[in-house]
Amino acid sequence: MTVDDRFSTDYRQARADQPLGTRSEIVTGPVTDWATDFSHLEPEWAADPYLIQDDLRQRCPIAHTDRFGGGWLPTRYEDVAAIAYDTERFSSRAIVMSNFRPPPELAPIGGSPPISSDPPFHHDARKLLLPAFTKSAVSKHEPATRAFCHSLVDSFAGRDVVDAAHDYAQHIPMRVIANMLGFPAEDGPQFREFVENTLEGINLPPEERIARMSKLIDYLLAQVHDHLDRPREDLTTYLINAELYGRKLEPFHVVGSLVLLLIAGIDTTWSAIGASLWHLARTPEDRRRLVADPALLPTAMEEFLRAFAPVTMARLVKNDMHWRGVDMKADDWILLSFPAANRDGAQFEQAAQVIIDREINRHAAFGLGIHRCLGSHLARMELRVALEVWLERIPAFRLDDPAAVTWSTGQIRGPRTLPLRINRLPAEAA
Amino acid sequence: MRLRINSDICQGHGRCYDLAPDLFGDDDEGYGQVLGDGVVPPDREHEARLAVSNCPERAIALVEES
């Protein structure tokens, strides 16, 4: 048996001579016209992207921007679906729309396989991870998740107002993924920093972005070394030992997949939990109905996922082409808004309404096609348990100050400040 | 009535086995599978239709037995 020395040197040095990507000018500031100058990083978008998307769907329906070096925003379900299914013409080698495009040579693997991978490699890299994320595999984490949610509610004792985003929602996916990866539970605050750096620091200067990304890779390499020294039953050890095409994974594949698993599961689920609680806090009839009839929660949850889908993906156009009325250029971004697709009235009846017993709900919150969210069963388990525990323990609550609620910017949308009054409520709020 | 899943289209969202666990299961990778011969007992038709109308990929067909 040969010694596993894949990680004895920092793989980043060996890859330093790889082709560089391209950078575009950083453009910020108020949007003049959303049809020709959209930006998902401006406060107006964060406050209410649905108004903007609904308007664009009527008059556009594929918006353009020169920001980020050029990109497109389809707003109809059928266009979003067509792009998600068309991996021949739209590449996943970058999935976060920013001012940096990785070099074409990075395809088909990409920086964080399999989310960043194109066929045919994608299928094989995804296959390695699927068994760990089936419904029955993730159900093993349900008892610990439920106990953790209860412990968070226990910590609210004596308080009239809690921040449901900060004090509840964010901690749940952090704890679950730390357990699954075998990372220290107390590293949660660092995870939050990594997530914000990856997904929200889009318009920072490139040196700053590189330095921040480097911190994440340093952290993950330290975890890999810890697992090489002390192998255990978790996803990190699994990835270290996994084989593809008869050999163990390249170090950049191991670390890239860890980036994906750590980053993708946190603010997405945190956002879904937060947005659901936000809706219930301002819609007492839905809250009372779910408290009275917990069996409705799985159906209601799908409606929250449709109406408040947290995740928007990105693609890169492979070659110049005329596509559904617009002239796309090679390396143009596509901001692939599943939230916009989910609010298309041509696909969903009363699309703007939250109908918690909606029976027909083919929403695209977890994407469509080969990149269907790997963690969707895990996310659903966490969302269901988080809401079950909250509604059981805190059946009456409301927004303490609607103006104090803040939402994230960028491709993952959810409340980041959500002050809820959980005690000393006026009588009509019960 | 008989259920079929087009496995070329199924992506493992799992809505079918969530909504109709008596009619669908999953394989080791989470892809949906029709249980047994796919024939839907009369008292399970509602669940079968729910599965069809909630599959994001439209991978499930409910066909009339001749």
Plain-language structure description:
The complex is a heterodimer of chains A (430) and B (66). Chain A is α+β, with helices and mostly antiparallel strands. Chain A has one domain: Cytochrome p450. Chain A is 45% helix and 11% strand. In chain A, the strands form six sheets. In chain A, strands 2-3-12-9-4 form a five-stranded mixed beta sheet. In chain A, strands 6-16-13 form a three-stranded antiparallel beta sheet. In chain A, strands 1-5 form a two-stranded antiparallel sheet. The longest helix of chain A has 24 residues, at 206-229. The radius of gyration of chain A is 22 Å and the shape is globular. The N and C termini of chain A lie far apart (66 Å). Chain B has a single domain (2-63), classed as Alpha-Beta Plaits (2-Layer Sandwich). In chain B, strands 1-4 form a two-stranded antiparallel ribbon. In chain B, strands 2-3 form a two-stranded antiparallel ribbon. By secondary structure, chain B is an alpha+beta fold. The termini of chain B are close together. Chains A and B meet through helix 19 of A and helix 2 of B.
Quick structural overview:
The complex is a heterodimer of chains A (430) and B (66). Chain A has 430 residues and is α+β, with helices and mostly antiparallel strands. Chain A has helices at residues 11-14, 34-37, 43-47, 49-59, 77-85, 121-129, 135-139, 142-154, 164-169, 171-181, 188-199, 206-229, 235-241, 251-264, 266-282, 284-292, 297-307, 338-342, 376-393, and strands at residues 22-23, 62-65, 71-74, 90-91, 100-101, 161-163, 243-244, 247-248, 312-317, 321-323, 326-328, 333-337, 398-399, 406-407, 415-417, 419-421.
Distance between the termini of chain B: 9 Å
Structural class of the secondary elements of chain A?
Answer: alpha+beta
The main β sheet of chain A shows up as: 5 strands, mixed
Strand fraction band of chain A?
Answer: 5-15%
Report low-confidence residues of chain A grouped into runs of 5 or more: none
Number of distinct beta strands of chain A: 16
What share of the residues of chain A lie within helices?
40-55%
Multimeric status of the protein: heterodimer
User: What portion of the residues of chain B fall into strands of 2 or more residues?
Assistant: 15-25%
What CATH calls the topology of chain A is Cytochrome p450
CATH topology of chain B: Alpha-Beta Plaits
Strand order of the largest sheet of chain B: 1-4
Count interface residues per chain for the largest interface.
Answer: A-B, 23 and 17 residues
**CATH class category of chain B:** Alpha Beta
Report the C-alpha radius of gyration of chain A, rounded: 22 Å
CATH architecture of chain A: Orthogonal Bundle
What is the overall pLDDT average of chain B?
96
Instruction: Give the count of structural domains of chain A.
Output: 1
The assigned structural class of chain B equals alpha+beta
The description of the largest β-sheet of chain B is: 2 strands, antiparallel
The total number of structural domains of chain B is 1
